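Example S7 (structure tokens).
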């Protein structure tokens, strides 16, 4: 049996509006024997800023996101 691992990115939409979805996702994955990593230093991925025309801010957020999830 191979060790299953996943790194969770909890999107702002889920975190803000549907937090129960994040909780359900964790529960389901754990039931399947998946070891979870949820980086506590994760922040916005930058898409909302990008979609709103704030390219510089989006770039900064995306760089941080890439650093946090680089080894995921």
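Recovered sequence:
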């Amino acid at each position: 049996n191979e060790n299953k691992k996943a790194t969770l990115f909890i999107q702002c939409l889920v975190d803000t509006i549907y937090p129960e979805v994040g909780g359900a996702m964790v529960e389901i994955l754990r039931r399947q024997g998946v070891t979870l990593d949820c980086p506590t230093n994760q922040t916005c991925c930058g898409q909302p800023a990008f979609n709103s025309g704030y390219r510089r801010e989006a770039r900064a957020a995306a760089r941080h996101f890439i650093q946090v999830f680089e080894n995921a």
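Notes on this example. Helices lie at 12-16, 19-31, 47-51, 55-69.
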